[in-house]
Design a protein that fits this description.
The complex is a heterodimer of chains A (494) and B (329). Chain A has helices at residues 41-48, 71-76, 94-99, 115-128, 144-156, 174-189, 201-207, 230-238, 295-303, 325-330, 340-344, 351-356, 369-382, 399-411, 429-444, 456-462, 486-493; strands at residues 2-12, 15-26, 30-34, 56-61, 64-65, 79-82, 162-166, 193-197, 210-215, 218-224, 259-268, 272-280, 284-288, 310-315, 318-319, 333-336, 362-363, 366-367, 417-421, 448-452, 465-470, 473-478. Chain A is α/β, with parallel strands linked by helices. Chain A has 2 domains: 2-238, Rossmann fold (3-Layer(aba) Sandwich), CATH 3.40.50.300; 259-493, Rossmann fold. In chain A, the strands form 5 sheets. A 6-stranded mixed β-sheet of chain A has the order 6-7-8-3-9-10, sandwiched between helices. In chain A, strand 17 (362-363) and strand 18 (366-367) form a beta hairpin. The longest helix of chain A is centred in the middle third of the chain and has 16 residues, at 174-189. The radius of gyration of chain A is 24 Å and the shape is globular. Chain B has helices at residues 2-10, 20-27, 29-44, 51-76, 84-102, 107-128, 132-151, 161-168, 176-194, 196-206, 208-213, 218-244, 255-265, 277-296, 301-319, and strands spanning 156-157, 170-171, 174-175, 246-247. In chain B, the strands form 2 sheets. In chain B, strands 1-4 form a two-stranded antiparallel ribbon. Chain B has a two-stranded antiparallel sheet with strand order 2-3. Chain B is globular and about 55 Å long. Chain B starts with a helix and ends in a 10-residue tail after the last helix. The chains are: A alpha/beta (494), B mainly alpha (329).
Chain lengths: 494, 329
């Protein structure tokens, strides 16, 4: 069992997405594809799964020509894909989600759908995966990780020989990702050939047999997983050596810095309980925890997106109780939200309009379009946003550059406190590095920053102090001096 | 499920570099459509291109336009307003009733009534979280009922000279109604393009959650949008009643279709966030020219419905860049 893609090329408009790439996916092997956003990894997977058609090159499956006609055709021939974004419809049942395009396969004597047979078939797939999911559960009550498992179940329902994962773990927390990787291990043992795209190198090393590094649509290296290390891969990805200097060095003197924001026994009904924290000027306070453990809610409460029901919040020496985000923004507290395109900005609007939306420069009652343009140019330069012009739509930017626009939009409000919700999620190493430098510089300039992150190395690398949350409560805090290890932190998370 | 797949594939950065030419032709489609319609009608009817007919078209178009400008704000803000025809009728009734005693100043109570209807729509929509489609469908029926009660089913004639002189007179040969509409259009254009308020409407229509987090006072903006639209409907009622010399119980009946069609044909999709005032001006001209031209060349009323429907669908098919719209409902 072997799928070979030979000399594949693909262009989109003027962009060469793939140039003469050759890869093989072999039975029982996981090939990880790593590279910056726009390197061509996803495009390659999508060509194999027949979501795109290659401009040049050929593919063979078990030595026979493989030239599928679309996603469904490829799936029926045993090659399928699991996406980064969720494709679960929360209004359908678990079984319907799995068999949505093959409902006709389950008919009873009257020609109507045989629901019981379908449920049983779905349950069997889930059981075979050792997934702890009952098909009778309400799908909207499950978490994102379980949704991903159901999407894998859907992929497996085609009885695939080749399975592609396109950044399938990007939106999962540590626990969910682990459950996901355990399933991948099992599929490997069953002899399925897999392609795996991820930005998380620890996951890549955990499951990959071979690691292919891509850059600008070309393959730059192809190694067995035990022949290469993370530093080398990162260097190959960006084309320069980042080494351990991904997180900028910074020392904060707490004796000199002034507390700006404090929470005392803050609770929000059913969400967080008795949260205490103090934030100083020029400090980066890290908040860690599993998804749903309350970190999001803490940021939302400070930002006025949730209203606290008991406790006391003090900001700049005064009692502070924001009821709406505009109250907080007016008080110079800004939020970079967790969902870039659903909460952070509008991808159909220009870079300039997104940058200015929270603080539109005015001349009298009118928009000062000249200042607006100059501000946009300034942020594009300062934050190294790769956009050909301030008027270009954000939909044409990569994830990293989109996130820089969201950060710029927050900075345009001249905040004293900046709340960051997973600011580098799904972003490649090069852009991460630039974003870390921006965050670091803001802290050095005296801004008080809270960094909520599910990425432990980032949390440890960037924060001056770390607070861990579990089930809505603060479960542990780490002060600077001696940086904690990932293991020490995880103990407080679980 | 399938839509989700498509969306996923569209989100890659490489794909968005669509050829610029295609986008450009879409943008100019309303202009092209208008020119093509004018050419066709002038071939079949020599009277179509006369200046007198041009003025007739303009006078019909401006009545649609004033209301359509209000609708444009609402649609770009991501909502819809089906109550427009009934609000226009209610304002027309108020204008006709007060014209006898107040003369031209009847425009004040008439536009205020429109404004109040807008405030009611806006507050229930923003604070009560009732979907605008259902809310304004209720408004459409309820306000119409009010008009029927108030008029007792009979037209209210307008005979006041001062009222008619102002709203149907001319300055230097140009009808006052056209001048009034011109001023309104310029004001609306400036509000949309040069005030932060215009940006805020677009932001809300483009994504409400994004707008909330960006610190926009979403409820307040929504209420102002509906209020402004209601005020413009009120003015439309005045212009319409003056043109008809009366307010009839059925005035503005079915008008919402022409108005929404004008907005949409002009390139403003119902999904919100995108759109322009220029587009709506073109849209109202297209809808008006279509009716006027078909009357001139003797198309039967039955056939006119079919052609209008077809043009509406064709225009949206050709104009709107669907790659920007996640879900097509």
């Amino acid at each position: 069992m072997k799928l070979v893609a030979k000399n594949i090329s693909k262009t989109f408009g003027a962009t060469k997405a793939l140039e003469n790439v050759t890869v093989e996916f072999e039975s029982g092997q996981v090939r990880a594809l790593v590279g910056e956003n726009g390197a061509g990894k996803s495009t390659l997977l999508k060509i194999v799964a027949s979501l795109y058609k290659q401009d040049a090159g050929t593919m063979t499956l078990d030595g026979k020509p493989y030239d599928p006609n679309g996603l469904m055709d490829a799936s029926n021939r045993g090659v399928t894909i699991v996406f980064q974004e969720t494709t679960i419809n929360p209004y359908l049942t678990i079984a319907e989600n799995i068999f949505i395009d093959r409902l006709r396969n389950f008919k009873n004597g009257l020609g109507l759908i045989n629901w019981k047979e379908m449920r049983n078939a779905a349950q069997k797939i889930l059981n075979d995966m050792h997934a702890d999911i009952d098909v009778n559960q309400d799908i909207w009550k499950l978490d994102l990780g379980q949704w991903k498992i159901i999407e894998i179940a859907r992929a497996l329902s085609y009885k695939p020989k080749v399975l592609m994962f396109d950044e399938s773990t990007a939106f999962l927390n540590t626990k969910e990702a682990n459950a996901f990787l355990n399933v991948v291990d099992k599929l490997k043992a069953e002899g399925i050939a897999m392609g795996f795209v991820s930005h998380h190198l620890n996951e890549v090393f955990r499951i990959a047999d071979t690691i292919t590094v891509m850059k600008d649509g070309k393959m730059v290296s192809d190694h067995k997983a035990d022949e290469i290390d993370a530093d080398r891969i990162q260097a190959l990805m960006v084309g320069r050596d980042i080494g351990s200097g991904l997180y900028p060095e910074r020392k904060i003197n707490f004796e000199k810095s002034v507390p700006i924001l404090s929470l005392e026994k803050i609770s929000v009904d059913n969400t967080i309980q008795d949260v205490d924290l103090t934030l100083h000027e020029g400090e980066i306070l890290g908040i860690g925890g599993l998804k749903g453990s309350g970190g999001d809610a803490v940021l939302q409460t400070i930002f006025g997106d949730l209203s606290y029901t008991s406790g006391k919040m003090t900001y700049e020496g005064k009692k502070f109780h924001p009821k709406k985000p505009y109250h907080s923004l007016k008080s110079k507290i800004a939020l970079v939200p967790g969902e870039r395109t659903l909460e952070g900005l509008n991808v159909n609007f220009s870079v300039m309009h997104n940058l200015s939306v929270s603080n539109i420069p005015k001349k009298g009652p009118f928009i000062d379009k000249k200042t607006e343009l100059n501000n946009a140019k300034k942020y594009i330069k300062d934050l190294t946003i790769k956009a050909s012009s301030p008027q270009i739509e954000c939909s044409s930017l990569s994830g990293g550059n989109t996130q820089k626009v969201v950060i710029g939009k927050c900075l345009a409000t001249n905040p004293k406190v900046l709340l960051l919700n997973n600011p580098t999620r799904g972003i490649d190493v090069g852009a991460r590095f630039e974003i870390y430098n921006v965050i670091n510089k803001l802290a050095l300039d005296g801004m008080a920053i809270i960094l909520l992150s599910e990425d432990l190395p980032e949390l440890i690398g960037m924060s001056d102090r770390i607070m861990i949350m579990r089930k809505g409560r603060v479960s542990g805090t780490f002060d600077l001096e001696k940086k904690p290890t990932e293991e020490e932190i995880i103990r407080y998370m679980l | 499920m399938k839509l989700n797949f498509m969306k996923n594939s569209g989100s890659s950065s490489e794909e968005s570099s669509v050829p610029k030419k295609k986008v450009l032709s879409k943008q100019y489609f309303p202009v092209i459509l208008l020119v093509v319609l004018c050419i066709i009608f002038s071939i079949f009817s020599p009277r179509f291109l006369r200046i007198s007919n041009f003025l007739v078209v303009l006078q019909q178009a401006i009545i649609l336009l004033v209301a359509a400008l209000g609708m444009t704000f609402i649609v770009i803000g991501g909502s819809i307003d089906l109550s427009v025809g009934s609000v226009v009728a209610l304002s027309a009734f108020v204008a006709a009733t007060f014209s006898g005693t107040m003369g031209a100043a009847a425009i004040i109570p008439a536009s205020l009534v429109g404004l109040v209807c807008g405030v009611i729509n806006g507050v229930v929509f923003a604070k009560g979280k009732v979907p605008s489609f259902i809310l304004t469908m209720g408004g459409m029926v309820a306000y119409r009922g009010l008009v029927l009660i108030l008029t007792k089913g009979a037209p209210v004639q307008i005979m006041n000279d001062s009222f008619l002189n102002v709203f149907t007179g001319k300055i230097l040969g140009i009808p006052n109604a056209i001048l009034i509409t011109l001023v309104i259009t310029i004001l609306v254009y400036v509000i949309f393009n040069n005030l932060p308020f215009g940006r805020e409407i677009r932001s809300i229509g483009g994504g409400e959650r994004v707008a909330i987090i960006a610190g926009i006072k979403v409820d307040k903006v929504k209420i102002i949008v509906f209020t402004l639209a209601g005020f413009l409907y009120g003015l439309t009622g005045v212009l319409q009643s003056a043109r008809a010399l009366a307010a009839t119980p059925t005035l503005g009946d079915g008008m919402e279709m022409d108005i929404i069609a004008s907005v949409v044909v002009g390139g403003t999709p119902l999904t919100g966030g995108i759109g322009s005032i220029q587009g709506t001006i073109l849209g109202t001209l297209i809808i008006t020219v279509l009716s006027n031209g078909m009357n001139m060349i003797g198309v039967t009323p039955e056939m006119q419905y079919i052609v209008k429907g077809a043009v509406l669908v064709l225009a949206v098919f050709a104009t709107i860049d669907r790659s920007k719209i996640g879900i097509i409902k």
